[in-house]
Specification:
alpha+beta; Alpha-Beta Plaits; two-stranded antiparallel ribbon; 14 helices
Amino acid sequence: MTNTDQTVFSIALHDFYSRSFAFIAIALTVALAHYQGLWQENSEFIILTAILYPMTALLIHRYVPEKHNHFCRPVLFSIDGALIGLLMAHMHFAILPSILFFIMANTSSIALGRPGIWVASLVATVCGAYAGTLLFGYEITAQAPLYIELCAAIGVTIQLAVAGFYSGKQTNRLEKLHLELRQQEQEQKVLANKVSKYISPQVLESIFSGSQEVVLETQRKKLVVFFSDIKGFTSLSEQIESEVLTDLLNNYLTEMTNIAIKYGGTIDKYIGDSIMVFFGDPKTQGAKKDTLACVAMAIEMRKHMKVLRQKWRAQGVKTPLEIRMGINTGYCTVGNFGTEARMDYTIIGKEVNMASRLEAAAEAGEILLSYESYALIQDKIICREKGHIKAKGFSRPVPVYQVVDFRHNLAAKTSFVEHELPGFSMYMDTNRINNYDRDKIAAALERAALKIKSQSRMQG
């Protein structure tokens, strides 16, 4: 028997004890009245009904289908009221016994704290009384004999005591159940926190909220794919102890992961010092905003590496580590891959391969974009054309773009000059130009200007 079944049976049993004492009191009162020659019409029927009804109600409550459980108790309380209304008519509405039994009929329905059920019980009692007048006739007994009133009073008192006792037990049980539920909730939070160490927060949230089923299922979605790794990490691993290397790597992955989560990225996997992140699933803001969030994340990661390098230098790591990153936007297959016993939530497709190829082609500190990503964010991000690269698995050379920074950041720099037109693109930061290169750049610009003027005169 499950916990739910035990709870339902326990409630049914409590109602049975309370109902049994109530209808035993009714049966004894009617039997005593019948013995004294009062209200003899159909007394045997009333007594038999009062004896059999509690057990019948228990069986109904115990075996009613689970989906109808919430209707069972209100219906039984209404039947209680109807039967007591019938009894009141049978007693010719003897004032004190009728009042006592009327109170008894409404005690349980009031205890539920649901006004609708109480009103239904009142209506059922009135209907039962009306049906009783049709069966037994309408007559009022102002005062029943004292022993009848005492019997009714004693029976009702015992029934109320029993109902109060089991109501208290039920309250204690509910409090215990509430405490168990709180403990289970706390355990689930602890478990969820542990599981979150292995699953991306966005995926975990979608599973717990029920918006995503844990089944072998995939779909096509437009995503933004990001790859990064540390340039020169392999050679560094040959120079320092494994314990130091482990601490450095864990520190790096922690810092980069925090940045990815900050911008809403879904962490797909770690492969050594490489990180794979994607945007657009389980939640998306649209391809443009997802791409902008991914590029903003990459820019912050690049900047944060300066902080990490200072920290690592203080720990004895002299090699100036840099990261390289690749970003691509396109349609991928995303979902659960694997078996029913072991699944991996990931993405696959040629667009994923393209992001990986861009990351491999990037220099230290570079963020390379595909044209699809560049086209979506060029109004917000300054990028430089890097020509084309030959990417494994792609038949044609791929145009790539290098991320510089946000336009609003560079606009504040007086040393920065950037201009782009069809057939013309110029990016220049005079603070970063070496003195010995300045004359060469000036000469190149002069030659370009002369060539443009010469073509203009020829066309004019």
